[in-house]
Amino acid sequence: MPTTPMSPAAAPPAPAPTAAPPPRPRPTWGLWIGIAAMLAVLALPLGDGLPVAGQRMLAILAFAVVVWISEAVSYEASAIIITSLMAVLVGSAPMVDDPSQTYGSSAAITMALQGFANPALALVAGALFLAAAMTLTGLDRRIALHTLALVGTSTRRIMAGALAITFVLSLLVPSATARSACVVPIMLGVIAAFGIDRRSNLAAAIMIVVAQGTSIWNVGIQTAAAQNLLATGFMDQLLGERVSWLQWLVAGAPWSLAMSVVLLVVVRWLLPPETEQVAGGREAVRHELQQLGPMTGAQKRLLGVVLGLLLAWSTEGVLHPFDTTTTTYAGLVLLLLPRVGVMVWKDVQSRIPWGTVIVFGVGIGMGGALLATQAGQWLAHQVVTHTPLADYGPLGIVALLGGFLILVHLGFASATALTSALLPILISVLTALPGPVNALGLTMVLTFLVSFGFILPINAPQNMVCLGTGTFDARQFARVGIVLTLIGYAMILLFTVTWWRWLGWTSAA
Length: 509
Hints:
globular, 23 helices, about 0% strand, mainly alpha
């Protein structure tokens, strides 16, 4: 039960994040199993129509999946290993077009690194710069506190306010990890100011709403999640077209909005709060805003740039011809200009997870190589030939492939890795299917399902950030997550036959 809340003047500042625990040892068994899986695929007889280079790419894919699931090495290290394997294995393989010649290590390295020339990778880097600017200036914290200041003192409104913060920051901060890292200290400060026991249902509910709400809005906003940007890169590379920011928002936001309501209902059902009213909450948040002082010039300039980017992203192809990457980089130019900008290179270089950029580049390159070596097409042919998938309509395709993605995600700690490993194959399957199938639209829908990291804390970085607060345990998280997954999957199927069909995303014209 909550204690008597502190007066606004005595409200404590948001607690500083605790020191990160030492990294846990990585399981070396995963590396050995990955090597064994790669050798096993290499030892298999060539499938009908599968080139040697394609078989070797499938072997590298098997190694990558095992290593990513087991986290035997870091994702950054795995990207370097994958590049080296492609240089050796694909480089020494006969060319698909001319089997009398081998690719050569130089051509294989070029194939592995082709993702670094993809516009989606540039967009990822730009998104990371924007996230760094938000944390550097403190604008993300100010926006979150202003959002909370509008919330009432009931526990229902507090949870709704936490969800509202995740939505607003999903529009402004293009990094799920950065958003959760911003929101968690603020909500811990709210919990402390309200006098809420950290091990209470209310504290657990607030933090689970932050984690699950972040995943839900990763679906509705294209720039909110790394896997969305990676999927956009695959669409460009493999389908020759992509979904714009506004098209993604129109398709995904209604689902996210409906799931936000479901999240609040489910959390209150499974974790009923000990009290329905907390006195002094709004005053405590206002105290925190007073401590921040007036809005700084850098924050005003950054807010202006971000609002301009939102306008540019949402009017692509309507008011101007520039794509999301181009407009994002135009905004970064303003943020880095002397006097006008809000940061210099030294301010952000330590805040950018450069390993993420490397993983994205190699992931896109591996996806392209799976198709260049005919591995993706061969796998797609096997799926279409040996399953009744070709007889299913869009609903059956989404139900089967979406359910597969949800189950496989249980073994992945990164939606980005899952996207890198499977989306190129799924795109190949979609393009090989007969009938009026909209491969672009169904790729977008399947990418929505990649964000279903609802069940295990390890399935998404924002889950782990919130778990580290000690307000809930994995069992509580899974109870909520299983219900959300079932309802979310059912709603995906419902939207497939209603909203997305009406928009023309599930069937070809």
